[in-house]
Amino acid sequence: MTEFRTGRNFAVKMDREDRLASYRKRFNLPKGPDSQDAIYFLGNSLGSQPKEAETILKEEMTDWADLGVTGHFKASRPWGEYTTFLTQKLAKIVGSNPEEIAIMNALTVNIHLMLVSFYRPTPLRHKVMMEAKAFPSDQYAVKSHIMFHGFDPETSLIEASGPEGGSVVPMEAILDILEREGDTIALIYLGGVNYYTGQVFDMETITKAAQKKGCVVGYDLAHAAGNIVLKLHDWNVDFAAWCTYKYLNAGPGSVGGIFVHERHANRPDLPRFAGWWGHNKETRFQMGPDFDPIAGAEGWQISNPPVLSTAPLLASLDIFDEVGMDVLREKSIQLTGYLEFLLDQIDSNSFTIITPRNYGERGAQLSIRIPNDAQEVQKKLHSSGARCDFREPDVIRVAPVPLYNSFEDVYRFVEIFAQLI
Q1: pLDDT confidence of 35, banded at 50, 70, 90?
Q2: What residues does 353 pair with on adjacent strands?
Q3: What's the pTM value of the predicted model, to 2 decimals?
Q4: What is the C-alpha to C-alpha distance for residues 187 and 394, in angstroms, rounded to an integer?
Q5: Rg for the chain (alpha carbons), in Å?
Q6: Domain covering 60-320: architecture
Q7: What are the backbone angles phi and psi of residue 207, rounded to the nearest 5°?
Q8: pLDDT digits (tens, 9 = 90+) for 276-293
Q9: Is there a contact between 278 and 314 (Cβ–Cβ < 8 Å)?
Q10: 281-284 contacts: CB < 8 A, separation 24 or more?
Q11: What are the domain boundaries of the chain?
């Protein structure tokens, strides 16, 4: 880790030496009140727009206008095979084989589809373990499946939390639950990176420990994909789902993705909700009545991909492919560490950082607790051109994204924040 220093000159020096600095020019950043680029620390909520996304989207619109339905076969990127242009590059980001992932639907839809297949409760093994303060949509989905199977979330849902109900969950708390109740747990379902605190869970260790107890293991990677280094295949994760509009910069409401480990590729005992796009490609257009799933994650597809909302992802994945997750993560650690260092220089007891201090346990985010005043501080930051978000009851989330944020962005943000505090 670099030895950080105070003063703007240090930030300027870091930016001058940053080998990823030029990638900032490939994104459109929102403007602040002075019509200059805002300090946009909201990539954990909606990533900035790659400039090439508009070009690609216009190409698809032109193909639609010129070719009509034959664009499925004759477009510059034939729509019938559209997701194949994505899976090779996305597989590198999540650490999988290409056939283990599919681009489809939206995140919560995919969570439901995965739970249909992988939450198979029995009278003796029916519990689900999640982290406390999991993303609400994950909680809604899991609870609905528990009730669908005739169980009660009050007794079938276990929430792992920190000491005295704290939001950051120590590994010991998860392992203790597994040791104590593992034989009754059907599914471990965690956010790979918790949306509220920015905590990164040790997915490799958790997966290994849980599977020793006979549990199925899945992850919501909405805040992990494109943020931290993932090795889903090597970690032996059963399944995962994610969105692409946060760190993957594919635009609002863009298409989601799933991972299904290759050992589940041809399991006829796994139930699934079937649709025609998951049918064997060789016989799909014979329109037969019996479902013959594609081997691998694509067999969970239901409908053909939404091309116009998928196109911007191509632009972002091209950039990720050029940079590589290891290099991106290296800068991310430095950028978030610099933010932490500067915040620690502020002589004030009016805020605390609730994100883990160990850089290996966090992604590109610091969550700052400001009791009684967080929302007002966030509004004033926004008015000053520094963009972050507020989460109830008293937290602002600050996410310096390494692809398009700079060290000077961090310096300017803390300068404004210190004045407000």
Answers
A1: confident
A2: 368
A3: 0.96
A4: 31
A5: 22
A6: 3-Layer(aba) Sandwich (3.40)
A7: -60, -45
A8: 999 999 999 899 999 999
A9: no
A10: none
A11: 8-18+324-420, 60-320
